Amino acid sequence: MIKVSNDASKKIVSMMQEDGFDAAKDYVRVGVKSGGCSGLSYELKFDKELGENDKVFEDNNVKIAVEKKSFLYLAGTILEFSGGLNGKGFVFNNPNASRTCGCGESFSL
């Protein structure tokens, strides 16, 4: 399962509306791809459709779609939003990551 913090939920719903998506029926697609300074990097985008290999979760008024391959790397992750002075953006708190880069956008197992 992937969880979404209160702050991340508010930001996602707002961004979805700005981009013409409906948080009540559309999805936040979370994934993992090769790359980044630690070996794997996170992907985050909005999507209106599900694929046949997607797992779907709903937490804090956000529907999350994850391809099964990426889910192996993301199980137990909490998606948070940081708006502090040290940076602004989404943060993946991933218990499976053994090492993350300084920017928090890539990780390794």
Description:
This protein has 109 residues and is α+β, with helices and mostly antiparallel strands. The chain is 18% helix and 41% strand. A six-stranded mixed beta sheet has the order 4-5-2-3-9-8. Strands 1-6-7 form a three-stranded mixed beta sheet.
Explain the layout of strands and helices.
Layout: E1 3-4, H1 6-18, E2 27-34, E3 40-47, E4 54-59, E5 62-67, H2 68-74, E6 78-82, E7 89-93, E8 99-100, E9 106-108
Parallel strand pairs: 1-6, 2-5
Antiparallel strand pairs: 2-3, 3-9, 4-5, 6-7, 8-9
Pfam families: Fe-S_biosyn
Protein name: HesB/IscA family protein
Organism: Flavobacterium paronense
List the keywords:
2 helices; Fe-S_cluster_asmbl/transfer; single chain; 109 residues; 3-stranded mixed sheet; 18% helix; alpha+beta
Compose a concise summary of this entry.
This protein is α+β, with helices and mostly antiparallel strands and 109 residues long. Helices cover 18% and strands 41% of the residues. The strands form two sheets. The chain has a six-stranded mixed sheet with strand order 4-5-2-3-9-8. It has a three-stranded mixed sheet with strand order 1-6-7.
